[in-house]
Each structure stands twice: as structure tokens, then as C-alpha cells.
Amino acid sequence: MEIRLRPIGVVESGLPEEGPRVDRRTFVSTVRIFDEFSAGLKGIEEYSHVFVIWFMDRVKETRITLKPWGLEDMPEVGIFATRFPPRPNPIGLTVAEIVSVEPPRLRLRNLDAWTGSPILDLKPYDVLDIVQRPKMPEWLKRFLKIK
Amino acid sequence: MEIRLRPIGVVESGLPEEGPRVDRRTFVSTVRIFDEFSAGLKGIEEYSHVFVIWFMDRVKETRITLKPWGLEDMPEVGIFATRFPPRPNPIGLTVAEIVSVEPPRLRLRNLDAWTGSPILDLKPYDVLDIVQRPKMPEWLKRFLKIK
């Protein structure tokens, strides 16, 4: 079975692939929704945050297990126990803050997609997406400096 | 541009399409990951919650705008301002609670996918996915009975 999707838009200005590292938490990306779909943005400005489902089109490799960040002192874990890119389906999922909406464009903070990445879907974030105390593995808490 | 994806698994036992309505918040679904990818589950039991990215393969229609739940007293909004199915790319996204992991199967609470739906990806939920007070439109707050 093969599933075929088409981009609904593109990251016009996103994280640079080269050069100095950018802090995604403050960086503002511009996403353009293609004209045939841009009426689908109507009312999205009533939300503060949106899930961006995008396609990591530069990923050429698939890993089923890996050590997070390639670090030797990390445990070997399955790809579905991580958010790393070399997945069987390289779908990106990011919670982004809506900075402004001027159809067909949105400006979004915290998106970690490169310029040119295809957008597959946008879904508003709502209270049902909040998990108050999610359990996470020790290796991730160590990285995020969480007790 | 066309994007081709392949299922990594299937909802073996999910919400029934017919019969009495089931409360998804308590219903436990079984997802089976295909053998070639099942090692990718290693360590996923260290998380309490996971994003399930699935394909709404029964959606035959695309809407760019709609009235939520088809109700006349709702405003007309864009599809990307809702989570409703008739999207240009009918990708489902659900935060599910991990009940148990016995590879190649997971039991998940709160998944709103029908039996037989293809699974595209699993991504663990972490603290960076929490938005403490997301802004939402009045029509959604009215539905969720939130002030």
C-alpha cells in the first residue's frame, strides 16, 4: 500500500541549513499556503499555537534504532522512541506559535523546518493536546535538564 | 510534487465505524507495527504518551472551509482552523496514552482511529509539546465547555 500526499504549502523562510546555528525557540519562519488551499486558513488566527505537519524532504536515510545525537553514552533506542529525522516516513511534527496570519502566509515561531520544506497539514493546538506530566526516559530528561 | 509514504503499521482494533458510540477517552485500541519496523518501538514504554500520525483512509472528500459539526450556528472556518477529516491531506494526529507495549503491538488509550487505519509514524510526547494556556476560538471553547 502506498499513500500519496501533496504539499499544501512551503516553508518560504525557515531555519538555514548552513551557517551559524539559530535558536528555533525565538526564530520566526514564514510559511506560504498554496493559493488553492489558502482559504483554509480562515479563523486560524483565533488560536495561539498550531501543529505543523511537514515533510523532511532532505532525509535520505532510514534508521530503525539509533543512539540519540549519536552519543556513545546514550542507550540504543528505537526510532519511534525519538523525534529524530531518519524515520521510515520522514514526517516532521512541530508545535509552533502563531505570530501573524496574512493569507496566504503565516509567520510561526519555533518551527524547526528548513527553507523549502513542504507543508502537509496544519492543525490547531487545543487543550486536549496538553499532557500535564508526561513520563519521559532518563536520557531525554538528562538532555533537557529536567528532574 | 507528490510525496509517497508507506504505512509502518495498522490499527488492529480501533474505534468501530458502526454501532453504539464509544468514548475514545477510555477506549483502548491495539496498534500493530509491521515486523520490519517493530524494533523501532524499543524504549517507547519509557514515555507515557505518544503522538500517533495516521492516515484517514476513509475520507473521500476535501473541504477548504466548513461549519464545525455542520451546525448552522457555527461560524464558517477554514479546514486548517479545525481538526475535521476532509482535509487536503487526510492525516490524523492524536495524542494517545500508552497502556502497554508488547512489540510488535501497542495498546493505546484515546486513539480516535478506526480499525484498519494505516499508521504513518509514532512520535513520543515530551514537555516541549505542552502549551500551558493555548488560545482557542469561542466556538471551540463553547463546544468543550471551557471559559
From TrEMBL, chains A, B:
UniProt cross-references to Pfam families, sorted A to Z: TrmO_N
Residue ranges of domain TsaA-like in the record: 5-134
Domain of life where this protein originates: Archaea
Protein family (similarity comment): Belongs to the tRNA methyltransferase O family.
Protein known as: TsaA-like domain-containing protein
Provenance organism: Thermoproteus tenax (strain ATCC 35583 / DSM 2078 / JCM 9277 / NBRC 100435 / Kra 1)
UniProt-listed NCBIfam families: tRNA_TsaA (TIGR00104)
Keywords: S-adenosyl-L-methionine
Keyword Ubl conjugation: no
